[in-house]
Amino acid sequence: MQVRAAVAFEAKKPLSIETIHLEGPKAGEVLVEIKATGVCHTDAYTLSGLDSEGMFPCILGHEGAGIVVDIGPGVTSVKKGDHVIPLYTPECRQCEYCLSQKTNLCQAIRETQGRGVMPDGTSRFRLDGQDVWHYMGTSTFSNYTVLPEIAVAKIREDAPFDKVCYIGCGVTTGVGAVIHTAKVTPGSNVVVFGLGGIGLNVVQGARLAGADMIVGVDINPNRKAMAEKFGMTHFVNPKEVEGDLVPYLVSLTKGGADYSFECIGNVTTMRQALECCHKGWGQSVIIGVAPSGTEISTRPFQLVTGRVWKGSAFGGARGRTDVPKIVDWYMEGKINIDDMITHTMPLEKINDAFDLMHEGKSIRSVVTF
Ligand code: NAD
Ligand code: DAO
Ligand code: ZN
């Protein structure tokens, strides 16, 4: 079939809206009509050329929601008409990783996903006879996309696509890092570095978990009012702090954070996030994706004295199991998504979403089809 997609032909260039060919689903795959997709910092990161797995030309996008319109042979877990959220972290429930119950990093299709192809090693997208690569196994910047069956979460049909698409990455990553990865306990002090599309969801996850003090750290002063709406109790702009940020945060939290989260992707703030943690028990979770090749450092004594450094991908969530539950939380009013979606636009305007992100003017832009 012919589909309408925003194609990334090369790094650092605007996306180009094209009509391209999409082959139907093969065995174990589904064809999904994408109704809405968020534009995340990670799409911009790959487009910037800094992502070691970035391949061009490709169709970016990993934060979508839509409807199954066709299924390939052998598909049993979803059917035509089901509403779904694509999963860049699939859940096969059969691989060593899934069965371990220790991680959400299903490895069933990891190798082919990282090479921009479907599990059979080929791409379903073509333009002028040339392959166009899939991205994160999802490629939601297209009005139709093909995904492995294990990479879609079936969701309730009354959930609005233009809101719950955000659960496909940002919401689950932030809220999940609090609940699944850190397991924040009621009464905790939490410090969140970066109050963008991910950090705000860490803030609302911390509120949901019953945290006491929720400190937000951001160099953009406009983030203060927004983050307060989601539960932030104290705002720190590092540009306005005299002296070192770490002792300032340790003092503010009366001894250090019980939990800190780095939601920027900067190795300097990753170190600050660890070192502002409480001696003896503070845990720091890295969510931000730093440029490939960069390294983190700290004095080993920081860990010897009880601080713990962790990372979190997709909020530690098992997509097919946990994503429908997060959709329920949204529909029940337990989490707020609407106020984070600051801009909505048609596919033709998708490059505006990247500009708004780089200018710090948006939290989330959502493209509707
Ligand atoms: P964003 O651009 O919306 O937000 C980043 C925020 O950090 C902005 O508010 C910005 O003002 C602030 N900031 C930048 N430099 C700062 C500094 N030195 N000190 C304090 N604040 C600073 O980005 P986002 O969409 O929220 O994504 C954040 C990071 O999370 C990115 O690296 C993204 O790739 C990553 N990410 C990780 C996962 C995962 O599963 N681990 C999933 C999605 C996104
Ligand atoms: O299993 O080796 C692996 C990789 C899993 C990819 C997890 C990606 C999480 C960070 C990227 C940000 C996604 C938007
Ligand atoms: Zn698996």
From TrEMBL:
Signal peptide: none annotated. SUPFAM superfamilies: GroES-like, NAD(P)-binding Rossmann-fold domains. Keywords: Metal-binding, NAD, Oxidoreductase, Zinc. Residues 15-367 form the Enoyl reductase (ER) domain. It comes from the Bacteria. Gene3D superfamilies: Medium-chain alcohol dehydrogenases, catalytic domain, NAD(P)-binding Rossmann-like Domain. Belongs to the zinc-containing alcohol dehydrogenase family. Class-III subfamily. NCBIfam families: adh_III_F_hyde (TIGR02818). This is S-(hydroxymethyl)glutathione dehydrogenase. It comes from Oceanibaculum pacificum.
